[in-house]
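USER:
Working in pairs, take the chain set out below, taking as long as you need, and write a paragraph about the fold.
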Amino acid sequence: MSLIPYLLVGCIAGTMAGLMGVGGGLIIVPSLIYMFSKQGISPEVLTHLAIGTSLATIIFTSISSIRTHNRHEAVCWNLFATLGVGIVIGAIAGAFVADFLHGRILQILIGCFAMLVSIQMGLGLKPAASRDLPGSNTMIVSGSVVGGVSSVFGIGGGSLTVPLLVFFNVPIRQAVGTSAACGLPIALAGAFGFLIMGLGEAELPPMSTGYIYWPAFFGIIFSSVIFAPIGARLAHKIPADTLRKLFALLLFVVGVRFLL
């Protein structure tokens, strides 16, 4: 099996992660679904395999992101600790829920989610910072929702966590840094859940463990680590508003493609 297609996905995901500060899940999952279908992997498992593999790759991109944000003192560790409890619960539960959904239903849900995120990014919609931080119980419940949705879609959760924290009056710099930290428990718990739920699945291809496909995992990790710094350098040369709109357009096209 050639690693070249997965290396290319890693190049794109890594570059977009550097440019936009995203974990890459909304790039990785659609790309893997397309490639797995071309490989002849069973439609019964290919969507779950793409999501589980995406979450596994986000473990490593999250670690790199956390180190960067922590050096700039942009991670609110007290918020991370509270949200993290709910995130782990939600991410594991999300993997179990996804396992019961047919692959086509998952693709439709991913398509709708990609389109909603694209509209939010394209129009620059942001919640008004109008409330104080709630108590621990509310934060745990919020974390459970973020973890569950992120696990089902195979993403790091930044598109959900950042608006949530901004809504609760957390400064945007700390909201982004804390969101990056939250991506790690989402990816760990979600990937573990998909790995466990996929064990014994008869339709899985060789070189997979549960819903994690190792050739794709290693190819994406290898190239994304190299290309993320390139994307970060490009981010200083291209206007941020232009970048946001281009990425929004890409996500909208991906969403429509999934629905069709």
About this structure: Residues 172-198 form the longest helix (27 residues). The longest strand covers residues 208-209.
